[in-house]
Amino acid sequence: MKTILKNGKFYVEKNIFKEAVLIEDDIIKQVGSNEEILKNSADKIVDLDDKTVLPGLNDSHMHISLVGDAMTSCNLTSAKSIDDIIETGKNFISTNPGLKAVKGRGWNQDNFAEGEKRNLNRLDLDKISADIPVVFERVCGHIVSGNTKALEVLGVDENTRVDGGVIELGPDGNPNGVFNENAIRLIREAIPQKENQDIENEFLKAALYAVSMGLTSIQSCDIMESDFQNMFDLINSIYKNGKTKLRYSHQFNFQKIEDFEKYLDTEFKAGVYDEKYLSRGALKLFKDGSLGGRTALMLSPYHDSPATKGVAALSDEQLQSLCDLAAKNNIKVVTHAIGDGAVESVINAYEKTMKGLNNPLRHGIVHCQITSMEQLERISNLSIPVMYQPIFLDYDLKIVESRVGKELASTSYAFNTLKNLGAVISFGTDSPVEDLNPFNNIYCAVTRQGMDLKPEGGFNPVEKMTVENCVDAYTIGSAFNEFKEDTKGRIKEGFLADLVVLDRDIFTVEHNEIKDIRAEKTMIGGEFVFERN
User: Fold this and answer.
1) Which of 89, 302, 330, 457 is most deeply buried (CB count within 10 A of its CB)?
2) Residues in CB range of 388: below 8 A, 6 or more apart
3) Which residues make Cβ contacts (< 8 Å) with residue 278, sequence separation at least 6?
């Protein structure tokens, strides 16, 4: 099957655009002018009416199964107070009769405009229901609150402990319903497990949404429990049966070395991956939590909470053991590190694991938010790729200076500095922490503003990125993380025919308009898998 796309503005690389491409099956065969390309015969010719075309966008870190789950859960993102959350929860129960538990996500105490600005506790959630478990996750996913019934179901009391996590106690010495880091896995168990068919339906619903936003590849962390084989099997089945064309690369999370060893003895040996639509991927680790929840691990105490430096989800020794075992098995590692204490620990672990080599496994850092200039230089010198989420600025620019101080904030979220130092950076959204919309992400990186267009001139504007560098981060930069920079991420001969046609020109619109751009068509492997009506 030969297809010609003509009359387009195809982004090839910085300052280079072409008019047309020839695609044979799933590969780009030729890129050039209309005149050059139309000399070829084709089964199909598509006129793009001068639309701008980018390589397919590749989200370098997200959780697609949780995106699907969030679509069917109680949505708390717009809640402006604890009372608002209680009312939202009650309404969810009343409109979904027969629920055995209530799961919700998206609350953020910093967005509360009325009442107390604090984490939800079990007494708050008891007002929603005292009869069934209620489990509500903070927007970051690193703090989760449960009602009294949820604690009863799990048998949680003042003596319950979880390595690398905290179950908070209230003034009465009993658990107050607030769980963070590794402890959140426990409170989530209060929600009954879904049937496989429901999980698959949610996955596919989220995949459809992803391609509608111009994503053609995702690097997704959906393996997050010790009982991992069922989820691996489910995802393998989806791709074996061709139920979606969205290219998927695993970021499988094992915090315990015994779980990682079990994976090495099972799925690692027996799993079947075509490395085209479904890729084996990387070990994903969590070193710390979130800045908003004050669980990001800092080298110095928080400015607005001097009693804490955050939470280490893994000790340095545990992190090193996991990295060493991954290296022994030739497995790439990507580690969630937000605070400068976590970033420091991860850099040290990778450097030790590399044994003087130039990071041949491309071990990377996810988030890498709070950083010093010294750390940025070490990241570049050690060739550590970084998976950034510029959309986090929408919220974090309002709190970062109060959390870590103005000086440290000035070298944080340093997308442009790290790019200029020569490091490979890529963009993702950590969805459903943020919406997977790539254009909101690019907008924040280019303007250094929130979605409300503030602050004027941008936060720390020296870190503003060019549109071209942002597109490269979302395409060739993300492909680098997968060792696939020679097959995708560019509109070039021999590359996969993954493209996104935009409804306006991202290179010429006012920067404030970037967030309003939408995919008009999305192509994966030479086939249009989405076309906007």
Assistant:
1) 89
2) 367, 368, 413, 415, 425, 426, 427, 428, 445, 473
3) 235, 236, 239, 247, 248, 249
Mean of the pLDDT values across residues 143-147? 96
Torsion angle of the four alpha carbons 414, 415, 418, 419, in this order, in degrees rounded to the nearest 10:
-160
- Residue in the block written with tokens 């489990």: 135
Q: Which residue ranges make up each domain of the chain? A: 2-50+494-531, 73-188, 287-465
- Report the amino acid identity of residue 166: V
73 confidence band (pLDDT: 50, 70, 90): very high
CB 451 within 8 A of CB 439: no
Whether the predicted pLDDT of 27 surpasses 80: yes
Tokens 């008009």 — which residue?
520
Q: Domain 73-188, CATH 3.10.310.70 — does that match?
A: yes
CB of 119 within 8 A of CB of 143? yes
**Average predicted confidence (pLDDT) for the chain:** 96
Structure-token match 């499988």, residue found: 252
0.90 cut: is pTM over it? yes
Q: Is 428:282 a contact under the CB 8 Å cutoff?
A: no
For 18, 256, 527, the CA distances from 44, given in Å and listed in that order, are 19, 52, 11
Domain 287-465 coded CATH 1.10.260.40: no
CATH number of 2-50+494-531: 2.30.40.10
Instruction: Find the helix or strand (DSSP H, E) in which 135 lies.
Output: strand 134-138
Mean pLDDT computed over 372-377:
98
152: CB partners within 8 A, 6+ apart: none
pLDDT at 223: 96
Q: pLDDT for 501-510, tens place per residue?
A: 999 999 999 9
Cβ atoms of 355 and 325 within 8 Å: the answer is: no
| Tens digits of residue pLDDT in 222-246 | 998 768 999 999 999 999 999 999 9
pLDDT in tens, 133-144: 999 999 898 999
Average pLDDT over residues 82-90: 96
Query: How far, CA to CA in Å, does 151 sit from each of 52, 82, 142, 188, 357?
Result: 53, 20, 18, 10, 48
Q: How far apart are CA 6 and CA 109, in angstroms?
A: 50
Please answer whether residues 417 and 411 qualify as being in contact, where contact means their C-beta atoms are separated by less than 8 angstroms: yes
Cβ count within 10 A of residue 112? 18
In this structure, what are the phi and psi dihedrals at residue 419, rounded to the nearest 5 degrees? -60, -45
Dist CA 236 CA 310 (whole Å)? 37
Rounded to whole angstroms, how far apart are CA atoms 496 and 279? 15
